Give the backbone structure.
Amino acid sequence: MTALDDYPNMRRSAATWRKAHDHPDGWTPLRRARVRAGYTQAHLGRRARIARYTVIRAERPDGGGVSEGTWAALALALGRGDQPWSIRP
């Protein structure tokens, strides 16, 4: 058996994982707020003046270890500057 023999199984597993994690019930407060605002991760990153990768990290269930300043910038970019806690996991 080669690695190529196992490829279809890996592909199915990845598709199953994406389907499970893209369901709205699994969304973090930041992701929900971003989607409601109609922003992509890249657009939110530009508005908050942070890297897209930082937005991706912040959308993780554990918050990705981003700083308080980053949460404040994200809240301002989403129009929630007075309540940055509302977008935190």
Remarks:
- The domain at 27-87 is CATH 1.10.260.40 (434 Repressor (Amino-terminal Domain)).
